[in-house]
Amino acid sequence: MSLNSLGFAKPPADTRVVVAMSGGVDSSVVAARLKAEGYDVIGVTLQLYDHGAALAKKGACCAGQDIHDARRVAERMGFPHYVLDYENRFRESVIDEFADAYLSGATPVPCIRCNERVKFRDLLATARDLDADCMATGHYIQRKDGPHRAELHMAADPNRDQSYFLFSTTQEQLDFLRFPLGHLASKAETRALAAEYGLPVADKPDSQDICFVPNGDYASVIEKLRPGAADPGDIVDMEGNVLGRHRGVIHYTIGQRRGLGIGGLGDPLYVVRLDPDLRHVVVGPKTALATTIVPVSEVNWLGDQPFEGEIPCLVRIRSTRPPRPAILRPIDATRAEVELLDAEEGVSPGQACVFYQQGSSRVLGGGWITLRRRRPA
Q1: Tens digit of pLDDT for each residue in 261-278?
Q2: DSSP 156-219
Q3: In the annotation, is 313 catalytic?
């Protein structure tokens, strides 16, 4: 028997798929399309944080309105839909670490931790409990069958590619996951499908903010979670000379130039390091930001070759930057040093470093950037 569109040798009607529904257009289209193809679809939406604060908030996922929208899609297409309260898990696994990372001077990426610790761990386990054959999401990334096992690849549309945020997907998870939108050429195709299915979210705007950070104001969230986090301190140069005062280390990020309040000193100064223990924001010239050595930890390796020796690859050190040539040097099973062939500026602890195969769209895995060391460019 030939394989169905999800890769199983049985009719769609006998293939159960749990769809992670955020209430947005992407996951709604995935659920609607699979239902239209005859699959046994179950929609699941996660309640991740307090709706009292979320109901009036637009531009973030998993709020009260989003749960309502996901339910409306399920009703329209005629499949069951469940809401699971993951609020405590989300706080413990994502929000608390987000606050602590900022307090330590790092710049965290909570969306990756949410995928890793909530959606692709806890929700995936729930999908298995529901006897699902697989779980589908609305992420823009591709899963392809390789000669050895399932492979993770960048989305066909580089403008929508979410591979940076999904590098920690393990091989076992990848075997169970499906990403039906990854091959689409543009978001316009997704919205056209939503209109074709008559979905009430066809024209719904994309979410912009981290779901628990209203209007992108990280500092106010951290102050609420960790009182005293915004204590003021000194802005110092790289020799320790005091240049001014700041209103809390949590308000600053590596590479920041604007908003320092220390103008009139000649050449522009940038934040080159944060020292929360001393409450110092360390500034220096732009050249001080350049680095070629990036230490990474918690590595998730998806390549076919053993994780050892020197591995030429491409790496992305921020979600907004293109992959750059590098050499990956594993230290042990979960740690490595990445040498960039061309120096990068603003490499920040807490961000992800994602590995890609040269000459290919394949994601080889990635790790978390730890305290950086500079080597002259």
Answers
A1: 786 667 889 999 888 889
A2: SSTTT--GGGGTT--HHHHHHEE-TTTT-S-HHHHHHHHHHTT-TTTTPPPP-S-TTSGGG-HH
A3: no
